[in-house]
Amino acid sequence: MPPLIPSRRLSRLLLSLGAALCLGAFAGAEDAPAKEGALNVYLDREPSDVNVQLELMQHEVYAQQVDTAMLLFILQHGSQVKIERVLYPANTADHEMIPGYVFTPAAGIPKGERRPGLLIVHGGFHGSFEWRFFRLVVEAVQRGYVVMFPEYRGSTGYGETVFKNDYGTTDVADVLAAADYLATKEYVNPARLGVLGHSRGGMIAVRLLQKHPQRFQAGVEIAALLDFVAYMSYKPDSRRRQVAAEKTFGGKLPSQNLPAYLEISPINYVPDIRTPLLCLATTGDKIVPVSINTQRLVDLLKAHGKTHDAHIYDNAPGGHSFLFADSAEARDCFRRSFEWLDQYLKP
Description:
By secondary structure, the chain is α/β, with parallel strands linked by helices. The protein is built from 11 helices and 8 strands. The chain has an 8-stranded mixed sheet, with helices on both faces.
């Protein structure tokens, strides 16, 4: 008769098996191709329902906002930087087209020259390209980078299909697809790609470095959301319900579907990081507290002997959004970010 498994060990084994089965189900659903004849579902463009009318108006306002941001960029920086609006292919089974922007010098890139590529990834529950990113984009192009700004699913201004959120799943996949797309450009060196993300964008950046360590040669996370279980513990009930309703979580909170939330939390996969990573954040962050996010990441990077650097600012103006302020801390953040990227991508 084989020896009995101690009850505590048996519980751990069952928990691991349950998590694996649960996560496997999610992976299978994401990879399953759509059947021929499957149709998209769109909002009624001539609705009688007031709620649908309001939703359509909201999407129209978002579209006007992104168009305005693009025009404002051209007016302010068009003499220096060319902005190209693109639709690039997703690498998920649904074969969606994802919107984004590619930025290059207005004077062009000499024929045969291949520059390093840099993905700049926005954050927000629903965000998009807007004026606060202009300075970062322009400086990156002036330093010799080709910049791509992906509007991953969850972004505003591109209709209900792109607006639909799926934290840690389609957003990560869409930014990876942006890297693949950027690598095909004849003026980009596919062996010199970097990624810089703020807030949710930082979460996406770190998760990409963990899942695809060979794709990027350097990364920067700024005030990144890194522990999604912790995030769900302090957010208002309205936001928690919005997140739980996403496909990945199946309408369930962490207490009902913990494996799904653990799976998308970069803090759980630090050993998988192979890419040099710079971590920047500030105390006094009231949206993504540094003590349960970047500071823990830095401690784990040290413990696992990973190539990294870090700086935690002391109550930088703007808190979570300190990157966008006209302040000494923001200027130092830019300096550290580009010195780090330059070291590995050599523009």
